[in-house]
Amino acid sequence: MLQEENEYNKKDEVPDPEEFRYLHPIEDDGDTLEPFDDETENRQINAEDPADMLHWAQQFQISGEELKMAITINGTSVRDIKRFLSG
């Protein structure tokens, strides 16, 4: 067991961070929101209408609770919420 521990402590077996990043890249999720036309970005989400909340939660690919949180933080503007979720 002690010999195994010593093998893992060798400096030449420590992976190179750059090689690790190359082999295991972190994917950018900036493009996960589906694009939609600019006319819809100018509208407001009706937070009192369950159908509207469901529609926009599906559009943003988030839960209804996450949409409520985004509205609480950013207001009901589709553009502002989209910017918040993308950033």
TrEMBL record:
InterPro entries: DUF3606. It holds the Pfam family DUF3606. It comes from the Bacteria. This is DUF3606 domain-containing protein.
